[in-house]
Amino acid sequence: MKSRRLVWLSAPYVLWMALFVVAPLIVVAAYAFTVELADGSWQVTLQNFAGMAGYAGVFARSFLLAAIATVICILIGYPAAYLLARTPPGFRRIANMLIMLPMWMNFLLRTYSWMFLLERNGFINNILGSLGFFNLVNALNGALNGAFSLALPTDVAYFEFLGSQGAVVLGMVYNFLPFMILPIFSVIEKIDPRVIEAAQDLGANSRQVFRKVIFPLSLPGVLSGVTMVFIPSVSTFVISRLLGGGTNILLGDLIEMQFLGNAYNPHLGSAISLVMMVIVLVCMGIMNRFGEGEGEAVLL
Amino acid sequence: MKRNGIFSKLFLVLVFAFLYAPILVLIAFSFNASQSSSVWGGFSLQWYVELFQDSYVLEALQTTLLVSLLSAAIATAAGTAAAIGFANMKRRARTVCMTVNNIPLTNADIITGVSMMLLFVLALGALNGLFGGLGLRLRLGFGTLLIAHITFNIPYVILSVMPKLRQLDPNIFEAAQDLGATGWYAFRKVILPEILPGVLNGALIAFTMSIDDFVISYFTAGSGANTLSMVVYSMVRRRISPEINALSTLMFVVVIALMVVINVRQSRQDRRIQAAIRAERRADPRP
Predict the structure, then answer these.
(1) Residues of A in Cβ contact (< 8 Å) with B227
(2) Are B211 and A109 in contact (CB under 8 A)?
(3) Is residue B287 predicted with pLDDT exceeding 50?
């Protein structure tokens, strides 16, 4: 039904996109390259980008923690996806549902569940306590103190999990692991079994089959998994706020603080957002070179 | 391929335990009679009762449902129209439109939220300045929240309707018109029944995304409106309370139910299409 008249049906949405998708990005760029002077007028400047140097630590921490979380997600997610793809077809349907279910869960709730578990008087500390784990630690510390005249604490009653960078990484891995498993799983599942049989017929052992056939063919899944884990991890402010205890601030926190927090400075916030967006675009560019938009399918 | 050994199975069990255990503990403790987040004090529904007496929560529930229903309805109508328009575009124009359409899907949520908030603040400031003499005092609130939700919902509707449009016989619309149907009548009787599954799925996905959203709402609603996610966030920042567990459980159940409906619909369609293909093959056994 190619009809030029029907094109007009999209006119309202094209206008809407111009107003609420494109214009906001232009506004961000405008804010990023300006500062507000004392008299309320704006001045074009690169000052905001220069000012970001002071936050190099936050940038480094965000990228480091997000990278660690991404690597852990690959280390857990790849084997999980590979093993799931080898389960019988009937179970695979259920497995697919089981991976997707946590993705639909509100990520605030997923993060909150760990806050709840890791609290000082929380579930995990309580379980460890009732298993006598802290008595063991205290006894061990006491023995070490006696043997080496150390001053290790002997009154440990709980572990302080919350507020550490480890808790932030844990939150990221927990939240985004399904986004790593699913694309890898769907790519491996689609590998033509005849390709694998051909490799075996040509004399490849199972390790060679994996290294030369399955792994290269599954790379697009890994790459889209990496973007789907890395981008939300780098830009999160909820996970670091709830599990990082306010001291381990990330890029997302920094941006949020410039718009809704005490450090109110939308110009600096826009500059940081713009830099982050450029990084996202670069990532997407690399993805598009390697894989073919697997991410979209996963979003639905 | 070879079947998995015992260690592989154990690994999978551990991965799923890691994914599900925290949320199951959370749900279990929403039925805990005691306030404690670690000691089980017996079964009770008191946190659910308290939740439904909390006017702050109820107001947020109302806002959430209203914004989700309205934005899903508007996004479905606008998105379906837009998808039909896109499908009829020349290739290059369509590529440009689809690329812009995908921006809210690929951008980090915080950037979508922040950029819309800046635009809203600027636009509302300008409107207030122009019409301030008339007593106009616009600020962030339900209106901006709704616009933001419509904006991030439409791409999902389009992505869900597009494949159905591609399956459509390109000639049936013209055939209907040749037989004397007006454009609207032909759309209603010929096109809509064909793409309806995609449209309904798009509506459901849009509704779910709206209910689930936190980050974009957080930036675009200002202090004028509160959604359930925003209530959860502000509660969580203040204290840990079984009331949040109860709220979480309810939200979890609703979203899961919606997603199961979407998936069942989808797999039923897939099966129907496959059955149709098989029937066609039987009728015409030549390859």
Answers:
(1) none
(2) no
(3) no
Q: Write the pLDDT tens digit of every residue in A262-280.
A: 888 899 999 999 998 887 7
pLDDT above 60 for A294: no
Does A112 sit within 8 Å of B110, measured CB to CB? no
- Give the Cα separation of B194 and B178 in Å (integer): 19
Which of B111, B232, B255 is facing A105, going by the closest CB pair? B255
Range(s) of the domain holding residue B235: 48-283
Distance from the Cα of A114 to chain B's closest Cα (Å) equals: 7
Q: What is the mean pLDDT of residues A107-131?
A: 83
Residue-wise pLDDT tens digits, A220-236: 889 888 888 988 898 89
B91–A contact, CB cutoff 8 A: no
B160 falls within a domain:
yes
Q: Which residues of chain B are within 8 Å of residue A1 when distances are taken between CB atoms? A: 87-88, 168, 170-174, 191
Burial class (CB in 10 A: 0-12, 13-18, 19+), B230: buried
Q: Domain holding B227: CATH number?
A: 1.10.3720.10
| CA closest to A126 among chain B residues | B38
Residue B15 counted as domain residue = no
| Topology of domain A59-120+160-265+285-299, CATH | MetI-like fold (1.10.3720)
The number of distinct structural domains making up chain B is 1
Contact A25 B103 (CB under 8 A): yes
- The mean predicted confidence, pLDDT, of chain A is 85
With beta carbons less than 8 A apart as the criterion, state whether A153 and A168 touch.
no
Model confidence at A1: pLDDT above 50: no
From chain B, the residues in CB contact with A16 under 8 A are 78, 150-151, 154
pLDDT in tens, A21-38: 999 999 999 999 998 888
Distance of CA B39 to the CA centre of its chain: 36
A76 and chain B in contact, CB less than 8 A: yes
Does B11 touch chain A if contact means CB atoms closer than 8 Å?
yes
Q: Concatenate the DSSP letters of all residues of A38-90 into one string.
A: TTS-EEE-SHHHHHGGGGHHHHHHHHHHHHHHHHHHHHHHHHHHHHHHTS-HH
Q: In this structure, is residue B22 part of a structural domain?
A: no
